[in-house]
Write a structure and sequence with these properties.
This protein is an alpha/beta fold. The protein has 12 helices and 13 strands. Helix 7 runs parallel beside helix 8, helix 8 crosses helix 9 and helix 10 crosses helix 12.
């Protein structure tokens, strides 16, 4: 009830202003010891994925806390893991405003943020001050390239970020699937992806030897991919021994929202309208990977049943974002209970 009232107030504001105000308010409540007023206790449902022990299967997708400035407050809501970013080597403002749009009739969001962030070094500094990190909480770091870095030099940006976050990340996500960074999705094509993964995996091995600590790598893909591309991505993931895949990022499709206010805005669509597409891609990817690589299901989870469908399609973990904006901490608890119950019934 409290979150419903807060959401009503926030939805009266510009979407991006509401986003920042909401996170700031959440961190204030946490600092005052009042975060428990918004959320129930974290659901216990331990699982091991990528060699990492997760307290439950429900995580926060990247994009909500781009700079890792609100990790402790978000973790207090019951997430099993927090993924921060996307971080780039250098700070960048992102795309011109307005660039974030709510479609409440469809429980959806369209964004064209463009990797706005304070840079990877600022993110690392924030993680280092996080109690959640110091207490062993699972923090994933999502990395990308700067907008002005040519595509042929993209690997240099990913390698720079990987080096910087290695000491603070439990896993690192390679984001090659945002629709809001020009030509970024070109990196999903077979030759480009194999070259990128070859360089990143070599760096991962070198850093593991240097620091005595292996940090798993996940690859985040788009839902707007043909079957042949899914197969080629799966082949590359298996060939280079990538530790996990996240399926999927936002979509450029507009099915079901074209007649709504803001429905024709450019950018990536997330929320309920993306659920079917993202879950279909998840299932096809799981099949193509032949159970050799875990998949994290994201895209369109608005209720517990949606999370269970992701698990049934082959996901090992799930992540929420837009559903959290619309449903609040209640969704975290509901999805965690739903996937735990699904496991119990299956056994």
């Amino acid at each position: 009830m409290m979150y419903t009232l807060l959401r009503r107030a926030l939805f009266l504001l510009d979407a991006e202003k509401a986003h920042h105000l909401g996170l700031t308010g959440l961190s204030f409540l946490h600092a005052c010891g009042l975060a428990g007023l918004l959320a129930k206790a974290r659901v216990t449902d331990p699982t091991t994925v990528m060699g990492i022990d997760f307290p439950n299967k429900v995580g926060l997708a990247a994009g909500l806390d781009k700079n890792g400035a609100h990790i402790d407050a978000l973790a207090a809501l019951g997430f099993g893991h927090i993924e921060v970013g996307t971080a780039t080597p250098r700070p960048q403002p992102g795309n011109p405003k307005p660039r974030l749009f709510r479609l409440p009739e469809a429980q959806a969001i369209i964004n064209r943020m463009g990797f706005n962030n304070r840079g990877v070094e600022a993110l690392v500094a924030n993680i280092k001050t996080s109690d959640f990190a110091r207490q062993g909480g699972v923090i994933g770091v999502n990395i990308g390239k700067n907008a002005d870095t040519p595509l042929e030099k993209a690997a240099e940006d990913y390698l720079f970020c990987l080096e910087k976050v290695h000491a603070v990340a439990r896993y690192v996500t390679i984001n090659i699937s945002s629709p809001n960074s020009e030509k970024l999705r070109e990196l999903q094509k077979e030759a480009a992806l194999n070259d990128l993964l070859r360089q990143i995996k070599a760096a991962q091995a070198r850093l593991a030897d240097q620091h005595g600590r292996y940090v798993p790598l996940a690859l985040k893909i788009a839902p707007d991919v043909e079957d042949a591309t899914i197969v080629s991505i799966a082949d590359a993931v298996r060939r280079h021994r990538v530790d996990a895949v996240i399926a999927a990022n936002t979509t450029t499709a507009r099915a079901g929202v074209g007649n709504l206010r803001h429905g024709d805005e450019a950018g990536g669509l997330s929320g309920a309208p993306e659920f079917r597409l993202a879950t279909t891609v998840l299932g096809k990817l799981t099949h193509a990977l032949q159970n050799e690589t875990p998949v994290i299901g994201a895209g369109g989870i608005l209720k517990g049943e949606d999370a269970r469908a992701k698990m049934a399609a082959g996901a090992s973990l799930v992540q929420i974002f837009t559903g959290f904006i619309y449903r609040g901490p209640e969704l975290i608890h509901e999805t965690a209970v739903a996937v735990r119950a699904a496991k119990s019934s299956a056994s």
